[in-house]
């Protein structure tokens, strides 16, 4: 299933943010900065579904390893941290 996407520059998204939020209920909004995709605005329902899916996949991954206790200190959130987050920028 391919979701419709719309690309907007950061300036466009800022200028019509209320419309961006409304449109995100129907399709994904990809925000670009200097011509490069940097962020995505999606509906909260879609976000929840993605996170629930990721939790299930993570649990299955740990089960497949045979000994999930080896990864007891690793959290799903850490997978999504970018290098920028780790550097504190």
UniProtKB/TrEMBL annotation:
Superkingdom assignment: Bacteria
Pfam family of the protein (one): PhdYeFM_antitox
N-terminal signal peptide: none
Entries under InterPro entries matching the protein: Antitoxin_Phd/YefM, YefM-like_sf
Family statement: Belongs to the phD/YefM antitoxin family.
Known function: Antitoxin component of a type II toxin-antitoxin (TA) system.
Name recorded for this polypeptide: Antitoxin
